[in-house]
Amino acid sequence: MSSENxxxxxxxxxxxxxxxxxxxxxxxxxxxxxxxxxxxxxGHVEQPAEGxxxxxxxxxxxxxxxxxxxxxxxxxxxxxxGASAAYAAAVAGRRVLLLEKAELPRYKTxxxxxIGPSRDALPPGFDLPLRERVHAVTFSLNxxxxxxxxxxxxxxxxxxxxDLDHSLVxxxxxxxxxxxxxxxxxxxxxxxxxVPDRRTVAVVLAGDEAxxxxxxxxxxxxxxxxxxxxxxxxxxxVDLGLEVEIPVPDSVAxxxxxxxxxxxxxxxxSYGWVFPKGDTLxxxxxxxxGEGAATKRYxxxxxxxxxxxxxxxxxxxxxxxxxxxxxxxxxxxRVLVCGDAAGLLEPWTREGISFALRSGRLAGxxxxxxxxxxxxxxARRQALNxxxxxKAGLGVEMGIGRRxxxxxxxxxxxxxxxxxxxxxxxxxxxxxxRGATSLPEVVRTYPVARRALDALDPx
Length: 459
Ligand SMILES: Cc1cc2nc3c(=O)[nH]c(=O)nc-3n(C[C@H](O)[C@H](O)[C@H](O)COP(=O)(O)OP(=O)(O)OC[C@H]3O[C@@H](n4cnc5c(N)ncnc54)[C@H](O)[C@@H]3O)c2cc1C
Known about the structure:
Elements: H1 3-11, H2 17-20, H3 36-42, E1 70-76, H4 80-91, E2 96-100, E3 113-114, H5 116-120, E4 130-134, E5 136-141, E6 144-150, E7 156-159, H6 161-174, E8 178-181, E9 185-189, E10 201-205, E11 212-219, H7 226-231, E12 235-247, H8 250-256, E13 259-264, E14 271-277, E15 280-288, H9 292-305, E16 315-324, E17 331-332, E18 335-337, H10 353-372, H11 376-410, H12 412-421, H13 423-434, H14 439-445, H15 447-456
Parallel strand pairs: 1-2, 1-11, 2-8, 5-13, 11-18
Antiparallel strand pairs: 3-7, 4-7, 5-6, 9-10, 10-11, 12-15, 12-16, 13-14, 14-15, 17-18
Helix pairs in contact: 4-6, 4-10, 10-11, 11-12, 12-13, 14-15
The chain binds flavin-adenine dinucleotide.
Flavin-adenine dinucleotide (FAD) binds near residues 109, 243 and 354.
């Protein structure tokens, strides 16, 4: 039995009669003029408003507790996955609360590379806060054999994550989501004293704050996810990314304008990058966890070789990336996970923004259906539909990405030779970054690519 099945069995049981007394969906956002009467009709119980003298408007006796707001969807974590989930649930007209432990805007260790699939997954009407448009890539093999390839079309864009993530949250708020920052979620409970009925999940916060109640929860709290631990997400690849933000003078910035650099590194499966963002270069490396000292040395050598060692970084940070194992669960009861919290990112490039945006949107959409479910069986059916949608799209991409990483780990020189010396390989790379094709499509439509992958990574 998979963990999802186990969780479903655990959450089943009872006739759901207590659940049905508490009701369902919503047509209008609470902050947008809906009264308590309308809320009660729809089955939600609002916090009674305080009158001017501090007395409660509703007729409660002194020792009577006001009943708590039950949100349709609570999203934990306001990165691209959480903001995308909150937007999707809010535009469906549901009461959505987005909880974030940091104050926004917040820094996130990330190259900020926005490839075509990320652009395509942005919510409608969203203006991407691009710092740079990349038209050329210099490839090198551990600092050697450099060659620059150029394209008339933009290959990919670069953002500062603080700008992107903040704008995405603002977009979700415009769609009707509520946001609370500076609140850390410690765990979720689907049974027990804090959970009033079987249709409700309690989201427990750090400190003395009362738990927040929801019909469905989306865990989007990043690669060290607490919600992922609740769901039982299993990871089979963990990498360490190290990155610095280097402010540079105009003469250096001009040299990098519109051009990124990708260096295939000395450690198996490692690579480094320079992503220019106006007057700052984001320089980083990534490699399998467990080689911390060697990864740090790779970053230092990389920066030194590029002649950037004399500039003082404004930020220096590290972060783990984690990829889910193929049989890892994506839900438990009324709780879904998406983005890094679910281990959804591309295993070869470790590209995760498009995975976060795409899985976040799916999670938001399916969380709405879970919120509407009147019993555990229906909630479970919706959760399995979410898992199916993720596995059918992102899961297939991850499968090819794993195989690419196997090949690249063993033969980085071959990949370098193909990209720098064989124009069709560069054209495929360019189409991939622009979002005109995906890795599964390349393998499906180019027999040469399929045969090469099968020969180098026999299944
Ligand atoms: C060095 C490095 C470079 C990368 N470069 C790229 C790149 O160029 N392009 C790309 O596509 N991907 C890149 N990635 C991957 C990308 O950064 C992630 O995949 C992406 O950020 C995932 O988004 P997310 O919303 O799932 O999680 P996150 O962006 O990590 O957001 C999670 C949010 O949850 C909040 N949170 C965490 N715990 C709690 C809690 N308990 N309660 C409340 N809130 C909580 C956090 O504060 C955070 O705001 C890179 C990763 C690394 C490490």
